[in-house]
């Protein structure tokens, strides 16, 4: 799957993975956008149409999306430099955690809940979503295991939620 041959329809997760794998081999399309910041995750929109959007993200070890889902979108992530950690929440047990290194990619459907953090201070990844991201679910897991979902805009930077402990005051 290449940019130039995108079908006029929603892509499934395998097609999205093929797209990020192809883009990973074409650094001339994204290399100039690479930049890093500890304070806010650096990102750049590479492509967006009616059916798919593609982003370049740059990570240090301080960059953390927090737990989130992608609402109705499937997605794929290809790491092109450094490494990311992908975690999946497990209720009542240890969360899953996998390191994804340069040259590796993964894909997921709308049911997927994860959290991405930089595993190195120079990680670069390419992300594709279909349908294009519009809303996301951002999760907060309290110390006693309560999980809450908040709908956020794709234009808001994902970050760990820091909700007041005493939400009963609201
Ligand atoms: Fe995500």
From TrEMBL:
GO MF terms, alphabetically ordered: ferrous iron binding; oxidoreductase activity, acting on single donors with incorporation of molecular oxygen, incorporation of two atoms of oxygen
Recorded superkingdom: Bacteria
Key words of the record: Dioxygenase, Iron, Metal-binding, Oxidoreductase
Annotated InterPro entries: CDO_1, RmlC-like_jellyroll, RmlC_Cupin_sf
Residues annotated for Fe cation binding in this entry: 68, 70, 114
CDD domains: cupin_CDO (cd10548)
A Pfam family recorded for this sequence: CDO_I
Family assignment from sequence similarity: Belongs to the cysteine dioxygenase family.
Descriptive protein name: Cysteine dioxygenase family protein
Lineage: Bacteria, Bacillati, Actinomycetota, Actinomycetes, Kitasatosporales
């Amino acid at each position: 799957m290449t940019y130039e041959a995108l079908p006029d329809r929603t892509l499934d997760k395998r097609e999205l993975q093929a797209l990020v794998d192809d883009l990973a081999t074409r650094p001339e399309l994204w290399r100039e956008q690479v930049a890093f910041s500890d304070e806010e995750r650096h990102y750049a929109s590479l492509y967006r149409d009616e059916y798919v959007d593609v982003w370049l993200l740059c990570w240090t070890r301080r960059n953390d999306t927090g737990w989130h889902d992608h609402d109705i979108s499937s997605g794929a992530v290809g790491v092109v430099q450094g490494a990311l950690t992908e975690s999946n929440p497990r209720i009542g047990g240890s969360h899953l955690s996998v390191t994804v290194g340069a040259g590796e990619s993964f894909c997921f459907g709308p049911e997927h809940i994860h959290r991405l953090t930089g595993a190195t201070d120079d990680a670069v990844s390419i992300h594709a979503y279909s349908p294009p991201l519009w809303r996301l679910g951002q999760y907060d897991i309290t110390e006693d295991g309560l999980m809450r979902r908040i709908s956020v805009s794709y234009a808001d930077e994902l970050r760990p939620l820091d909700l007041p402990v005493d939400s009963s005051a609201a």
